[in-house]
Amino acid sequence: MSSSNDSQVSSNGGTAFSSDDNILGGVSLGDRSTVIVHARDKARPSFVKCGSLGPFENPTSPKPPLSPEEVNRSLNLNLGQKFISPENKTILWILRFLNSVLLEWWEPIAFRLWDRLPLAWRKKLCIGLWKLYLPIHKFLLGRRTGLHPDASDEYHAMTTFMWWGRLFPVTVRRMRFSLSQLNVTDGPISGTFIKSIDEPLTGLDPALIPDQQKEFCTVRGLFLHRQQQCSSANNDNEAWTILWVYGGAFLSGDVKGNSGKADWISKQTNMDVFVCNYRLVPEYRLDDVYWDICVVYKWLSQRRNPQKIVLLGISSGAAVCVRLMQFIAERQRGETLLPDYVEPLVNGMEMPAGAVLMGPFADFTEPRGALIHYAKHDLIVNQRVLDAGLPYLETHIPYGKRKEYSPVHRSFQGLPPMCVVISEHEAVYEMAVDLVNRARRDGVPVTVGCWKYMCHVFSFLNAFIPEGRQSMEFMCAWIRFLQNKKSQASVRSK
Question: Is the pLDDT assigned to residue 459 strictly greater than 90?
């Protein structure tokens, strides 16, 4: 795992990581250059930090740039073996048959039994098994199974473990269960005041609420309080707050699974975090997701100063965060919103202080490039996930509107600073770079942290791989940087 200098236990029971200077190798987050960051701790991998105002150029990529197909030919695919291919139709048929006769019938029972175990037990079991597995993998396979030898030993071991999932069908039930278990590696939340929120939005004229949304004006989620440990903390207008929007391809994701990661971020930034609930596809449509996030943000901005709210979105949740900010900017410019019935919610909204976007899935048009080809090795967004999720883009977005609904294809004018964390080899890499470039073109400051050879949202593997921990620390460093910058500007204005 990480070196002994990697982290230390803080007084509040959380993990306090090393200084921002150690994380960034002496590079300032305010620096507008594009550099390869070599962390002070030599056990940590290097990554690219880009804060320039122009198009993102990755100094670790070949020149001239290679197509995703050409990049794949340079990588160690399929664990470096040629016996089992995820494209082998015979193997896939056999596994699908076994899946239908052996797995599907007892799967719900197994899920329920696992979920009934105390969270602390599940954490001990998972971390304990990992500690047994990792040295065995290092000894037997080393760095021969991941995409490249430069990835950490831990990521090679994780690749060996997770690669096999691409051989089995992916269902909505499996996606939802998997993402509901993200908190297992974090364990129970401690040292944080937790308040479960189930409150109606107030201050909105009922006559302006469309009929199909009248039953969906209630805000639900978990409020994690660090700055005030009291039940009245939700109304603290001076407290910095993160609005956490989980991902899962709009099909999955929940508050429970994200609560542990949110608590980790809360401890490292000393900020409150509200993890909001929103409706999912296929039971609902993308319009409903946008409505829900507008309701949540309006509710939160009634209780907290928007200039002290930071959005944090994961994958599809990152797209929702961008779309929320675009709604606000479009309304301020007097433009018609899409969908137009969110206008009563957006009226009078103020822009948040900034946004952190983790692997933004922000282009809903026809799949291309990296989304197709990097799915061949991405541990999260593999071909089976695309098979399960992509058809819903056609059925749950208004017909012919996929481009208009895609945040990456809309204006970024007037949006606040953003931090984007991506992997050069994840399935959404190209659309994330498009988002960065279009935002910068419209004058938005965007700081990029880019790692190599990692899968989609690899940051959430922070309990296992150093790259994941490093990227989580990078996001926290940017949030603190934004907070300090805003605080200094506020002092100067007085």
Answer: yes
